[in-house]
Amino acid sequence: MTSLLTIKDLVVDFKTRAGNARVLNQISLELKSGEILGIVGESGCGKSMTALSVMGLVPSPPGKVSEGSILLEEEDLLQASNARMRQVRGGIISMIFQEPMTSLNPVFRVGDQIAECVLLHEDISKTDAWERAVEMLTKVGIPEPALRAKAYPHELSGGMRQRVMIAMALSCHPRVLIADEPTTALDVTVQAQIFDLLKDLQRETGTAIIMITHDMGAIAELADRVAVMYAGHIIESGLTKDILENPHHPYTRGLIACVPHLETDPTEVRPYLSEIKGVVPSLTELGKGCAFADRCPYKTPVCEERRPDIEPISEGHAVACHNVEYVVAV
Amino acid sequence: MSDETLLEVQDLKVHFGGKKLFKKAMVVHAVDGVSFTVPKGKTLGIVGESGSGKTTTALAVLRLVPITAGKVQLDDLEISALEGDELRHSRKRFQMIFQDPYSSLDPRQRVGEIVREPLDLMDIGEEKDRDQMVRDLFVQVGLRPELTKLFPHQFSGGQRQRVGLARALSTKPDLIVCDEPVSALDVAVQAQILNLMRKLQEDLGLTYLFISHDLGVVQHLCDHVAVMYLGQIVEQADRISLFKNPQHPYTKALLSAVPKARARDGSEERVRLKGDPPSPVNLPQGCRFAGRCPVAIDKCHSVPPELKDRGDGHMASCHLLDE
To answer: Torsion angle of alpha carbons B285, B289, B290, B296, nearest 10°?
Structure first.
């Protein structure tokens, strides 16, 4: 499969009062057409910033894309003009945001909001755009779409609003869909519906999806490949199965082990959850060593001196850790 | 339940709204006939989707919303009958931890003062000893005692939740009601707080009423679990029985909707619910879940089922289990 979107050595800096915060540090990612790539990590690790960089939406100032490139096939989006970026956003790459409650405009009917997006990108009449909106609402499984298109956002439930957001994002048949925590604000039963919907739409339209989440469960459910982020770095990436069943980086291991997973056959004895000690370091105070070193149970002197590069350990599986052989052995 | 009961809730009802001057009366049946008991030193988890009434149940137990009907009994204290000063002074026996550690601490107070305030209000201990008591509480929840002078914005989310815990513990309560205490935290911090809550329970013999939508967390922390749907408990059992052998179709659907954190092998049976829960204003006539239930029969739409014991204290309300 050809690579649709290639992020190469991307560096994003934010000027803060406490100094320069490097929120993305040499990020490299590749999205092939038709695949679902998961990006997972805790708050502040840079996963949303990666999405905003691709969309050309890094708030500037204080933010600044300092180095690297974001290639949409051959075209570098970081060099693209504002006019071109407006075509790209919504037309070729579109995004679903975390909060369906606040991302829709409360004073317009949802049908008009979807139609607006279509009118901006395609040369069609208002009537046709409205019809497209209704068609999209049908596609995302909203009952009585012609009627619902006339509803205002407050008349819809959270799950319905997220469906409207998905309908809007897909209305111009984008090639890449970025979903930033699309189900965090929703109940589990509704979350399951949205996951099924995303999978179905992806199969039908072949849109590639970047799924940003903090939930390993969501990754297991949807993603083909995963990148794990920590303090602005990608520290491990690989096939979902490899990452979930055979994580190599101490942080990935900790992240998977510290969540109380739902078991179908719970036991009487309940061990305490394993913890990752300490807190995420401040991005303005990262030293020259590995960002995870302070919290890492396998730390050696080299970890404090030099930041590990992300290196392949097997086909499609890469890890950034000096002591990866030792970590896996114990 | 052979253990000594600490909290007993009987047929609790909380209705909001009522007769309007020119409009038709609109009554929201937020909690509609809920009964449960929590044994001393144990944890009861209440799970359900948003709008199921789990938070309202918690608030009603604490008398933070008006109770429409029913009885709440904490040991020898009938919480639902208390009024005025009596209620205020009794509050030291039942405390709460809130969901959002960012908005539940006063940004203008130093965290030491936040933890000390209940001691002053409830007149606990000698005044000169209270600063030391605050420092001890900080140590107990895993914060360094010299941090008492800082303001909440200088803390991370996990540290703030520890401050919230210290404040709740300050009055030495019998019961702590926890409303989604870890849902606003990152997973690594969530593990730290959950472990702390378990350790405190073991050390101090605390009883928790734990409200959550996260079934993994509930399975980990709770001894008994009640599943709520639209203001009522539809299933209630001890932890092992509920998760191993769920009876109610809603519980089954809820459990199968939770993503499993391992690669799928496609063997799992999935129950997918359609649509959203109906509004608590216009309640359906029969079983409240009937409209979304994948196995509903005719009877379900006309007759509400009863919550009955299905063996070993495993309670469930479903007509299909009656047959």
So the answer is: -140
Largest CA distance in chain B: 69
| Rounded-to-integer distance, Cα A214 and Cα B94, Å | 33
- B268 Cα to chain A: minimum distance (Å): 11
Q: How would residue B1 be classed by pLDDT, with cut points 50, 70 and 90?
A: very low
Confirm whether the ipTM is greater than 0.90: no
The conformation of residue B237, written as its DSSP 8-state character, comes to: E
Q: What are the residue ranges of helices labelled H in A18-102?
A: 47-55, 82-91
3-class secondary-structure state, position A93: strand
DSSP A272: P
- Residues A286-308: b if buried by 16+ CB within 10 A, e if exposed: beebbbbbbbbebbeeebeeebb
Question: Number of helices (H) and strands (E), helices first, in chain A?
Answer: 12, 12
- Out of B191, B254, B264, the one facing A189 most closely (by C-beta) is B254
Q: Shortest Cα distance from B303 to chain A (angstroms)?
A: 25
d(CA A290, CA A302): 9
- Residues of B whose CB is below 8 A from A272: 195, 198-199
CA dihedral (B156, B158, B159, B165) positive or negative? positive
Q: Which two tokens stand for residue A15?
A: 């000027």
Per-residue pLDDT tens digits for A127-153? 999 999 999 898 888 888 999 999 999
CB B34 within 8 A of CB B57: yes
Cα separation, B288 vs B230, in Å, equals 7
Nearest CA in chain B to A185: B50
Quote the minimal CA–CA distance from A6 to chain B in Å. Answer: 26
| Per-residue tokens: A46 | 């840079």
Whole-angstrom distance, CA of residue A299 vs CA of residue A276: 13
Q: Give per-residue pLDDT as tens, B4-29.
A: 899 999 999 999 987 777 777 788 88
Phi and psi dihedrals of B18, rounded to 5? 155, -155
pTM beyond cutoff 0.95 = no
Residue B312: the pLDDT is 86
Three-state DSSP state, B51: coil
CA A57 to chain centre: 14
Structural contact between residues B122 and B75, judged by C-beta atoms closer than 8 angstroms = no
A184/A195 Cα distance (integer angstroms)? 12
d(CA A198, CA A140): 9
pLDDT at B62: 94
User: What pLDDT is stored for residue A325 in this prediction?
Assistant: 85
The B residues from 184 to 203 touching A (CB cutoff 8 Å) are 186-192, 194-195, 198-199
